[in-house]
Amino acid sequence: MQNSGLESAAYNTAYQNTSDNISKVIMILNVQMIALLVHLIAFKKRRFYFNSLIYAFHFFSVFITSWILLIGMDSIITFFASHEESLAAYYSFYLFNFGLPLLYAILSIKKFMNIRRYWAISAGLVVMFSVTMANMIYRFIILVLTLWLM
């Protein structure tokens, strides 16, 4: 970054433009990866990949909805707490980004696979971990493409 003589604001703009262009393709791949993982977990219960793909779309829509709810809650918490670095903002971030999707993953995979609660908790944790890792890989790909295209 310093060798090319560009400031961080230029990299921020380039990263955002690259993110906007690539995010649609990566999201489709992200849903496919979740569906493949769920299909491998639920192969004995649900033999068709299509069922896992529907579950992945449902889970990913809840995951994205939790991010949208976080934006609304963040503005409400900032209004009442009068600053963004409050403890309530900190906890709401983790609740809406990890808590709600994890709860949905556990409850929905229990119903989807018709398994016991302790297996549903471990399967829900695996699904949530895979989504988190896929998002980290997504961010890394965007970072590499931003630096490569500059």
Task: Please give a structural write-up.
The model has no long low-confidence stretch (mean pLDDT 79). This protein is mostly helical. The protein has one domain (8-149). Helix content is 85%, strand content 0%. The longest helix is centred in the N-terminal third of the chain and has 34 residues, at 8-41.
Please describe the structure with a list of short key phrases separated by commas or semicolons.
150 residues; mainly alpha; 4 helices; 85% helix; flat
| N-end to C-end Cα span | 10 Å
Structural class of the secondary elements? mainly alpha
What is the helix/strand order? HHHH
Helix content: over 70%
Taken from the alpha-carbon principal axes, the silhouette is flat
How many domain units? 1
Would you report the number of β strands? 0
Uncertain runs: none
- Please state the average pLDDT score: 79
**Main sheet attributes: strand count, strand direction, barrel closure:** none
Separate helix tally: 4
Q: What order do the helices and strands come in, and which of them pair?
A:
Blueprint: H1 8-41, H2 49-81, H3 87-113, H4 117-149
Helix pairs in contact: 1-2, 1-4, 2-3, 3-4
Give the structure's gist in a few sentences.
Helix content is about 85%, strand content about 0%. The chain has helices at about 10-40, 50-80, 85-115, 115-150.
